Amino acid sequence: MRITIVGGGYVGLVSGACFAALGAVVTIVEVDQGRFTALREGRMPIYEPGLEALVATSRTAGRLAFADSIEEVADTDMVFLAVGTPSRRGDGHADLTYVFEAAEQVAAALTKPVVLVTKSTVPVGTGRRLAELMALRRPDLAVSVASNPEFLREGCAIDDFMQPDRIVIGSDSATATAMLCELYAPLTVKGARLLATGLETAEMIKYAANSFLAMKIAFINEMADMCEKLGAEIGDIATGLGLDHRIGPQFLQAGPGFGGSCFPKDTQAMVRIAQDAGAPSRLVETVVAVNEARKAAMSSRIIAACGGVVRGKRIAILGLTFKPDTDDIRDSPALGIIHRLVDEGAMVSAYDPMGCNHARFQLPSRVNFCEDSQQALQGADALIIVTEWNEFKMLDPVAIHQAMRGHVVVDLRNIFHGPTMRAAGLVYYGIGSAPSPLDVRAEAETQRLSYAG
To answer: Which of 162, 172, 355, 420 could join 320 via S-S bond, C-beta 3.0 to 4.6 A?
Structure first.
């Protein structure tokens, strides 16, 4: 089967490489010349574990190629739209500009009947609009439209594709459904569950799934705030909740709020979809509000831990990406935190294993980007953990104490063991645990010295 994927970004590149590995002949169309050139030269424009090797293997086997124009791949059986659908500025709706621009180009290039599949996350009703567009632009060809939402987690996307929880296919066309079932047969014969639905249902499943997961994150973060007031431990509470098979342990790690390319924009879009349908989703609206407040509050938490003043202090930030094992900094909590700290007069030294190059363009020029965590720690008055990279978990508390000038550690991901950190002489603040009396005294002393200075 010959398939074309329009869009060589995260979803398109991972999906294309995986389809090729399953035996399809895949061409990925990428119109951005910088990204296209990188792909042609074998350089990955994104970081995803295992992706570079998978792309290289499929290219060597002759099953994966790249093009910079849809006209180059007119002879195809299926076209997947995997372009961006960012939040539209001003109202939070998903911006479908790229989707319909790509669809227009596909319509103009087609030379035979195809199945047009949306891989991008699109609002309910988009597939129906695409079918109308194709019928208008190409009445001479039978173009079937389907929805095949992706459920890939950055950092483990290849495993998610090859061992999916479910494969969702939405279409009113028996032809489209049959062809997609054939494409995914190498996975379904191994036990992957395939759910065939109508167009609107498949589109809705994606938004409902992401909204529900975002709700779990917002919930556990609110529980963490309560724990800090009541003396309970959020880690044990999350474990107790997760052991209930009806709830499960995933997405119950308290932290600074969710970011990334999906949850922020998809929850915003879900709110607008529900409002437009006349069935407002109060739960999702609250999730959006809670998460925004959560991210904003992290800066205040850090400033309070530093004695209420950060002007002139050196703050080490470890972690810029919204999660580990990716170079994606979109809507990362680290961005807002750093902007606020710099505005308050702090000197920020930042390090991330993969995110520094992207972050340089979104953070103030006064931020010092470091080569490693030790450089960031050197002479710091406070250490802030924002992303839970494994290499940060391996840092020795004694070495942290020796490298820093001050002793405050604010761990927004709970990657360290509080008692061990305190035993090393550090003033440690995690998420969802009441500060120990030692921390309270240390904070008071820090404030006294700050005001005295």
So the answer is: 355
SS3 118: strand
Q: What is the pTM of this model?
A: 0.90
CA distance 309 to 320: 23
- CATH number belonging to domain 198-453: 3.40.50.720
Give the residues across from 80 on adjacent strands.
5, 117
Q: Residue 259: CB partners within 8 Å, gap ≥ 6?
A: 295, 322, 323, 330, 331, 332, 333
Of residues 217, 415, 245, 411, the one with CA closest to residue 317: 411
Structure tokens at 272: 């607008």
Location of structure tokens 């010092």: 368
In the numeric block, the tokens 């975002």 are attached to 214
- The domain made up of 2-197 has a fold known as Rossmann fold (3.40.50)
| pLDDT tens track for 306-341 | 999 999 999 999 999 999 999 999 999 999 999 999
**Once rounded to an integer, what is the mean pLDDT over residues 344-370?**
95
Under the banding of pLDDT at 50, 70 and 90, the label for residue 436 is very low
Residue 352, CB-side half-sphere exposure with 13 Å CA sphere: 28
Active site residue 262: yes
Q: If you search the block for the tokens 């942290």, which residue do you land on?
A: 400
Q: Compute the C-alpha angle 258/261/266, nearest 5°.
A: 80
Q: What share of the chain is helix, strand, coil (3-state, %, to 5)?
A: 45, 15, 40
Amino acid at 450: S
**What number of residues does the chain have?**
453
Which of 9, 141, 170 shows the shortest CA–CA distance to 76? 141
Cβ atoms of residues 5 and 12 within 8 Å: yes
The neighbouring-strand residues paired with 66 are 28
Give the integer Cα–Cα distance in Å for 343 and 212: 34
Phi, psi of 166 (to 5 degrees): -165, 155
For the chain, domain boundaries:
2-197, 198-453
CB 298 within 8 A of CB 333: yes
Which of the two residues, 274 and 442, has the higher pLDDT score?
274
pLDDT grade, residue 435 (50/70/90)?
Answer: low
In 10 A of CB 101, how many CB atoms? 13
Indicate if the pLDDT at residue 229 is higher than 60. Answer: yes
Catalytic residue among 18, 156, 227, 262: 262
Mean pLDDT value across the chain: 93
Q: pLDDT at residue 441 above 70?
A: no
Cα 345 to Cα 441: distance, rounded to the nearest angstrom: 25
The answer to whether residue 211 scores a pLDDT higher than 50 is yes
